[in-house]
Amino acid sequence: MSDRARTAAHSPTLEDVARAAGVSRATVSRVINGTRNVDPEIQRTVRDAVTATGYVPNRAARALVTRRADTVALVVSGAGADTGPPDADTGPREDGSVHGGEERDGDAGGPLFSDPFFGRIAAGVVEFLRPRGMHPVLMLAESPAARDQVFDYLRRGHADGAVLVSTHAADPLPARLVEAGVPAVLFARPPRPLPVSYVDLAHRDGARLAAEHLLARGCRRVATVNGPLDVLACQERAAGFQDAMARAGSPYFPSVEGNFTLESGERAMAQLLARHPGLDGLFVANDLMAQGALHVLREQGRRVPEDVAVVGFDDSSAARAARPRLTTVRQPVERMAAEMTRLLLEHVEQPDRSPASVIFEPTLVTRHSA
Q1: pLDDT tens, 172-184?
Q2: 310 pairs with which residues across the strands?
Q3: Domains of the chain: residue spans and CATH
Q4: Within the chain, which residues score under 70 in pLDDT?
């Protein structure tokens, strides 16, 4: 007998696992196939037996039985997409939207891999899936043709469903997936009503925290750098900040719109200082733009926070890389991505489950900039 045949003859089987665990073969099969309603203690016993025996499930055979691919697609739809007018900027936004053309480098996924937001999404998805023996497939739908390919891949069942970061308001992919019955969960509330689950942040409350912090520091000549205001999350942040300022008796303050990049933060800060040189407080709708604003303040000899206090939004790696380190409103992106994945797997197991929304609460992280 050859070594290969001898190894195959001694490969652990379901029966070996059942004997080691002291349960039936059917129970082992239910645990391995992820069937619900198996006692957690029995699940642990079976998994320990799988490890002890070295049993490796036949994933192809399992897929025939369960009709599951045991794969989740992490889809970023729209980053780099040529969906706007010729001069439109389509670089990615921190909250899952796009604006402005000079940031595009022409490489598919170029902006994606330079933005900390997308890395945090991926980390949260992987962290949730790994203990379950599953892994995500990263799919970029950065053009209409690529979007069609992603849709066809998902419709054919090559993945069990999609966690979807849609990067522009007019993206047709979420609606197409819903119409095709493909399980999907969105990062951020869709701009138009759609029967799909999503995870989002209470953006107004986060902006209110920023306003209250600047006011408590004694800032009275406050300005803002908004994200693109055709994006729902940016509208919510701007409205939350304005409401808090109005309640404090300051209904008007200057603002400039950026596009969630460091460079747009630099441009916005230069414009604000030129028009309002006496400003003493600044709220910026994401950390990358706030980092750019800090560059300009330093170049123009403004001390932070003594002359100008600055608060960002997201608590991304840019907040910790900034100098001084950035006070910011934390958006728990990793936890939000993990929750997206949990919701998706529930939809896969229960196809008739109603859409659900999970809204996370922001917190203020105080560092040195304010």
Answers
A1: 999 999 999 999 9
A2: 282
A3: 3-66 (1.10.260.40), 71-200+334-359 (3.40.50.2300), 203-330 (3.40.50.2300)
A4: 1-10, 33-36, 56-69, 79-115
